[in-house]
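Changelog-linked ticket: zinc ion example.
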Amino acid sequence: MKSVQSTFLLFFLIFYNTALAWGPTGHRVVGYVAQKHLTKKASKKVNDILQLYSLEMCGNYMDFIRSDTNYRHMNSWHYVSIPDGMNYHESNKNPKGDVINTIEKLIIELKKKEFKIFENEEFAIMALVHMVGDIHQPLHVGLSEDRGGNKVKLEWFGEKTNLHRIWDTDMIDHLKLSYRELGDQVDRNITSTQVANWQSTSVRDWAEESQKLRSSCYDFGDKKRLGYGYIFRHKQTIHLRLEQAGVRLAGLLNQIYD
Ligand SMILES: [Zn+2]
């Protein structure tokens, strides 16, 4: 993993030129919210294993390594493509893997402590933090024809962007909040019943929720310039998905480490 660290800066720069996952703030919010919902025991174990980054910061690691050829086989693990009117079970699976079946395998590996997909337990946790975040972004359960909105070219307050990037990064960055401020905001009123309900759902349920939400992401008609109106319509969804991702990630980590 050392070689990865040494080339960190290069990948960091490349990462900012692609639009393929919640941006840095989004993934940090997921880790931060999860940290708040971990049991004491699970928190101690997870934080003892994580050496490179804290739980709050480690969610971006999967993006930092994207451009390293050693990890290129992981590129399809950030998303899944499912056509409208079809569920995951019925859809054609990517032979290289997708975000759904990779999370499912990863949970088994973490429970058994046998690491085949990722090199070791630390990497596996960092990947889990990232992918539980990704699967909650509605356009990561996307349509293959527009690559989850990456091909939908738009303007965001006068800047060229695309629909996928608006959901990963532009709307969140527009709030101008730190990940802690945003995390506290999205997770401020949760009840223990809500936590239990959300944590009782499966990886496939999370994907199904994203798939249901994604059609509303396209609610701009012929307009190519998006801004305040679009944020107004979708801010609650962004908050909800970040909070659910964090709470569910905590649920998994509590199951494995408590
Ligand atoms: Zn990703």
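Closing comment: Example verified and attached. The chain has twelve helices and five strands. The CA atoms of residues 38 and 110 lie 16 Å apart.
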